[in-house]
UniProtKB/TrEMBL annotation:
Alphabetical keyword list: Hydrolase
Molecular functions per Gene Ontology: hydrolase activity
Gene3D superfamilies, sorted: alpha/beta hydrolase
Species annotation: Klebsormidium nitens (Green alga)
Domain Dienelactone hydrolase: 21-238
Annotated signal peptide: none
Record-linked SUPFAM superfamilies: alpha/beta-Hydrolases
Protein name per the record: Alpha/beta-Hydrolases superfamily protein
One Pfam family in the UniProt entry: DLH
Amino acid sequence: MAGELEKITVKGTEASKEPDFPGYVIGEKGAPGLVVLQEWWGIDYEIKKQAKIVASKGFRVLVPDLYRGKLGTNMEEAHHLMDNLDWSNSVQDITACARHLLQEGSPNVGAVGFCMGGALSAVAAIRVPEISAAVVFYGTPNPQLADAATCQKPVQAHFGEVDGMKGFSAPEDAKAFADKLEKAGCTHELHMYPGQGHAFMNQSPEAVERKKSMGLPEHDQSTVDLAWSRTFAWFDKYVKA
């Protein structure tokens, strides 16, 4: 078992707006590292569950609290928090987390994120030298923050075929993202899931109910299991190796 998440203070980088910031760690110190990046809700029950799943596969996990303790309890609040996020400073948060894991003894560090965190995991692969590989769930980066056509790290991406978030994670956005990765010549995979919309990886009981209240497609655990298996195969190859 991976145990429970422990709240820690992470030292910021020289370019960070704060000297330090909060985060959560779980997993054996010195194991291959993964920075796990939150959805627009904040550090809630779902991202904590995902961190535990990742840690159970033999990784040391660090989850930066990008909102500094704030939570979105409904879509309006979550949208407000994401709109007000300093994305450039979040890149520094990811850099600081990767450095923290490396200093603890992790031989390599990857990044995985969901929704907002998915976009940031893509940014990490493009802009954070300490990140060895990334897995992106239903989120694409703003090209002004990070141009996927310049990516040189292995990236695996997962999107739903009926995701309606146009401009961010709709099928055409996923394809455009993959096309840029192809142009960059970096190793990549794009997986599209039939009948799945946004947030299909949310699997805690509370999150499944939340998806239902948002009108998203029915939860399908087999899709979740398949996506996790692909994710861990990717990280086993590019972070554990």
